[in-house]
Specification:
HIT family, subunit A, six-stranded antiparallel beta sheet, 20% helix
């Protein structure tokens, strides 16, 4: 949600409303529930968490902001996904771990795992490499005095074809505007069917003016 106003110099500004992080206990309860993995291709339905609004105003000029008119639900086929250009994300922070298969960056306690795979999550099949990265992250959180249940690994998909990556955060800092795909679920689905994500995938897309 955005609010417009004009200052004394007749410049037009917009203030955007943000959200506060989820409560740690809420996410812990959510993640500790036993989940049943099936072939049903609804990768978001298991994780619905209500969270409270909190005004967090960020002021910028009108030409710096795209105005969202709403959202639409998109069902994307594998062929449609493959026609998109593959992009490679750059992450801020220091390299915390570098392996042949992946690099892990750390920035303010958040770990970003960037895989050297040349493909998006829809073509990624190397479950053992994911588990290797997850193990490194698990050990790092333990070094920081946090248990397995106090952090979560996930990535979000909003229609962009990006080289596969995910991030790991303390649950107290877990909040996203997009639907998350949890890495544990991602691995389970691949172990059931290595071509699972070549089925149609659903995501939410912003509609801009």
């Amino acid at each position: 949600m955005k609010y417009w106003f004009i200052d004394k110099d007749n410049k037009e500004y917009v203030a955007a409303v943000g959200y506060k992080p989820l409560d740690r206990n809420e996410v812990y309860d959510l993640m500790s529930k036993e989940q049943t993995v099936t072939y049903v291709n609804d990768i978001y339905s298991k994780y619905t968490v209500e969270y409270n609004n909190q005004f967090d105003l960020k002021v910028c000029t009108k030409d710096q902001v795209k105005i969202s008119k709403g959202h639409r639900f998109v069902t994307e086929s594998y062929d449609q996904h493959q026609k998109k250009k593959l992009t490679e994300l750059e992450f801020d922070g220091e390299k915390a771990c570098e392996e042949e298969e992946f690099i892990i960056y750390e920035n303010d306690g958040i770990y970003y795992v960037k895989f050297n795979c040349g493909c998006s999550f829809r073509d990624f099949k190397d479950v053992q490499t994911i588990k290797k990265a997850q193990k490194w992250i698990e050990n790092k959180f333990k070094e920081n005095g946090q248990g397995n249940s106090e952090h979560v690994s996930y990535f979000c998909y909003g229609g962009e074809r990006e080289q596969f990556w995910f991030k790991a955060v303390d649950v107290s800092g877990f909040y996203e505007n997009a639907f998350p795909i949890f890495v544990d679920d991602f691995v389970k689905n691949l172990e059931i069917d290595c071509d699972f994500y070549k089925n149609d995938v659903n995501y939410i897309e912003d509609i801009y003016e």
